Amino acid sequence: MPADLSSDPSSGSASSAPQQPPLWRQLQLTAGALASIRAGTSGTVAFEAVEPALRPGVQALGFQVLRWLGRAEALRRHLAKRTPPPLPDALLCTALALAWHSDHAPYEPFTLVDQAVEAAKRNPATRAQASFINACLRRFLRERDELVAATDTEPVAQWNHPRWWIERLKRDHPRDWQRVLSADNAQAPMTLRVNALQSTPAAYLLELEAVGLAATRVGADGLQLARARPVQQLPGFADGACSVQDAAAQLAAPLLLDGLLPATPGAAPLRVLDACAAPGGKTAHLIERAGPGAIEVTALEVDAVRSRRIDETLARLGLKAKVVVADAGRTADWWDGALFDAILLDAPCTASGIVRRHPDVRWLRRESDTAQLATQQAMLLAALWPLVRPGGRLLYCTCSVFREEGSQQIDAFLVRNTDARLLPSPGHLLPQSGANARGVPDNPSGDHDGFFYALLEKPAPH
User: Fold this and answer.
1) How do residues 351-376 score in pLDDT, each as one tens digit?
2) 20 to 30 A Cα–Cα from 3, which one of 80, 188, 276, 331?
3) How distant, in Å, are the alpha carbons of 18, 75, 192, 302, 316 from that of 152?
């Protein structure tokens, strides 16, 4: 699962940021990031390659380009008989994505066109195509309404997702697929999880109001900011007062722990496994939710670099867990033989539910990825289920809206494992929607990412 961003940089205007470099330079860097993403680099890595002083403005433009890339590519096909080389094409599509709709354009379309041509001229890698880019974009300005109308009937241009993705959503969510695609192209809110060991949502809400930050309650432990802010502006963030975590992701800890924690003080702590733990947000929420001494958490992460994010998260929040670098599916490498009371399996997935936070995901994924990841998810479920004690639980979750990674995965698991019982669970949560026909009736409504949750219990013998 991609690391969450503390805020969407496009929540503010790129043109209003102080001390911005010339627009042509920002367009060069945005096009470079787009070319990297098209070559298979994640958006997080592509934008981190931009020097820090320029990154916020470039990332803001880049997010908007990625959200309108389907439209831009359709327009380019009408403007050019052949696809240009990768970098000139990235620059051309960057300008088209930003300028195609005047209501959404961060700058006047004429200015964007002028500066895109300037960007082409100033880069040796695109200079030879500067006249071609100029001709395409000037024609676009002259014929914009006709060109946009010509692309309106193309699904990829209309919805700004790959065709296979659109078709899969139609099959998986026939009543909601349009709403999901629209939500994917919106900006995600910045949602906080208040550290229950330090404060309460009501008390922290007052702290936010005292520094002029408006927010509303969401879920049991969350607050949604009216406007995204750098975490450095949040009261007590450095000391662990809160974390940035989407409202849907905040459901994991209460789903797994509520009703399982010992009712009597002094009871032995529960053994809890977070099987795919980086960057550590859910690990921390489990410890915060349980309270002091109630659980002992083992946090697994196969990637040594990403595992350091868990350590950093826990250190900032003043929490402790046993962090282990290991493949959760290779239990012989790390398991000590003692059964777990609870396991959280936040499995690797397509991340199709968090596209509004990571707009590059839809362009990086291939149709075949879903089946490959579903195979990996099934292997992890098969490996970890024997580690749950009788009477214990396993919470399976993915940040995906595809049924192959959610309800279909669990249906197949229940057929293979007759000792598993599905407890009331949210099922598929769609972006900005709590509606689903299979889950419990009190699913959260409001603004959250797409997720899937299935809470599995291993009944104790009578």
Assistant:
1) 999 999 999 999 999 999 999 999 99
2) 331
3) 36, 10, 38, 44, 48
Strands 295-301 and 388-398: unpaired
List the structure tokens of 288: 């915060």
Q: Which amino acid is at 136?
A: C
CA distances from 183 to 279, 352, 447 (A): 25, 12, 10
Per the rule left: phi > 0, alpha: psi between -120 and 50, beta: everything else, 251 is alpha
- Crossing angle of helices 69-79/144-151, nearest 10°? 110
Other CB atoms within 10 Å distance of the CB of residue 343:
26
To the query of whether residue 276 is one of the catalytic residues in this protein, the response is no
B/e letters for 370-402, b = 16+ CB within 10 Å, e = fewer, are beebbeebeebbebbbebbbeebbbbbbbbbbb
CA 85 – CA 127 distance, rounded (Å): 12
pTM: predicted TM-score of the whole model, two decimal places: 0.90
User: Whose CA is closest to 191, among 220, 162, 155, 168?
Assistant: 220
Strand ranges, E, within 197-291: 215-218, 222-225, 242-244, 270-274
- In the structure encoding, which two tokens stand for residue 211, read together? 């520094």
Q: Each residue of 160-184: pLDDT tens digit?
A: 999 999 999 999 999 999 999 999 9
In terms of Cβ atoms closer than 10 Å to its own Cβ (0-12, 13-18, 19+), residue 117 is: buried
| Cα–Cα dist 302/65, whole Å | 33
Distance CA 99, CA 298 (A): 49
Q: Which of 104-118, 224-238, 432-446 has the lowest mean pLDDT?
A: 432-446
For residues 165 and 366, give the distance between their C-alpha atoms in angstroms, rounded to a whole number. Answer: 9
Catalytic residue (choose from 93, 276, 397, 399)? 399
Terminal-residue alpha carbon distance, the chain: 39
pLDDT at residue number 17? 43
